[in-house]
Amino acid sequence: MPPKKIICLVGPTGSGKSAIAARLGSALNGTVINADSRQVYADFPLITAQPGMAEQRLCPHLLYGFMDSREKISAGEYARLAHKSMEESFAQGRSPILAGGSGLYLRALLRGLAEIPPVDEGIRRKWQERCSVLGSAELHRELTALDPERAAAIHPHDRQRITRALEVYESTGKTLSWWQKNTLSKSKGTERIILGLDMSLAELEPLLERRIDLMLEQGALEEAGRAKERCPDPGVPGWSGIGCAELWRVLAGTLSLGEARALWLKNTRAYAKRQLTWFKAEKEIIWHRPEQFDSLDQVMALCGFAM
């Protein structure tokens, strides 16, 4: 029996992954499965750029907007949910298409999970309390000194992943990057094709700025306001996403909308830069310019599907 085929579509934020994934799903009788850590939250479909109705009509989409902002999800938990979604897709005769920009999610899913020993609850509480007192940015600087590779893949506002990396180091004496490199194993029984959208940061910048403006025009601040009514705690995981954190400060009266827009763009650009660094280090990715995906015949041939 030939191996099951998984298509992964990766690239920096704002490069057009969602639209291309939906078109691939339509052409390949596929199911698009989210691989973005921010797009799991139900409160922020617009701010986190979750696929719109036009895209969702083209093919089934799974693991988007299914979590409450108060909930957190680890890469391991994500991998288990994504494996289940992939098996459901295969059972329906569909091709799973993983789409997203969270490199750690894709690594956990496709290469297996790092076998990290359990962390003592006291150590976990210690780092969570330190984060509450010092702030995530200060802990991110500490993590950069200890594990620069892992720190480069985490936004300074992402307190959940920052404290996780620090607690693992204190508990085991080894960095999270070490555990991921030395204990991950590849999934068996599947063939994977990882396609990357090849865009430079200079090309992305005007697109990112325009996307933020469109989000604001379409009601991003109002979306944040509704989310604040449901969950008025800015420290929960859902509020840590880029765009969410900046608009919270507008609602709290500590930033003007113009200041928030500028900070949102700055943080998005920095995130895109980290994504490009992360993905360029992955030798398995086959890079293509976004316009090359206009020819689905070419992409399907690359993926080994008969026309």
Verbal overview:
- There is one protein chain.
- By secondary structure, the protein is an alpha/beta fold.
- The protein has two domains: 4-113 and 184-302, P-loop containing nucleotide triphosphate hydrolases (Rossmann fold, 3-Layer(aba) Sandwich); 121-182, Histone, subunit A, CATH 1.10.20.140.
- It has 14 helices and six strands.
- It has helices at residues 17-27, 53-56, 75-91, 103-111, 121-134, 136-146, 148-152, 159-172, 176-183, 201-217, 220-230, 244-252, 257-280, 296-302, and strands at residues 4-10, 30-34, 61-62, 95-99, 190-197, 286-288.
- Strands 3-2-4-1-5-6 form a six-stranded parallel sheet, sandwiched between helices.
- Strand 2 (30-34), helix 2 and strand 3 (61-62) form a beta-alpha-beta unit.
- Helix 3 packs across helix 4 (103-111).
- The two termini are 21 Å apart.
Spatial order of the strands in the main sheet? 3-2-4-1-5-6
Figure out the total of helices: 14
Averaged pLDDT, please? 88
Helix share, percent: 40-55%
CATH hierarchy, class of the largest domain: Alpha Beta
Q: CATH homologous superfamily of the largest domain - what is it?
A: P-loop containing nucleotide triphosphate hydrolases
Write a compact overview of the structure shown.
The chain is α/β, with parallel strands linked by helices and 307 residues long. The chain has helices at 17-27, 53-56, 75-91, 103-111, 121-134, 136-146, 148-152, 159-172, 176-183, 201-217, 220-230, 244-252, 257-280, 296-302; strands at residues 4-10, 30-34, 61-62, 95-99, 190-197, 286-288.
Note the topology.
Layout: E1 4-10, H1 17-27, E2 30-34, H2 53-56, E3 61-62, H3 75-91, E4 95-99, H4 103-111, H5 121-134, H6 136-146, H7 148-152, H8 159-172, H9 176-183, E5 190-197, H10 201-217, H11 220-230, H12 244-252, H13 257-280, E6 286-288, H14 296-302
Parallel strand pairs: 1-4, 1-5, 2-3, 2-4, 5-6
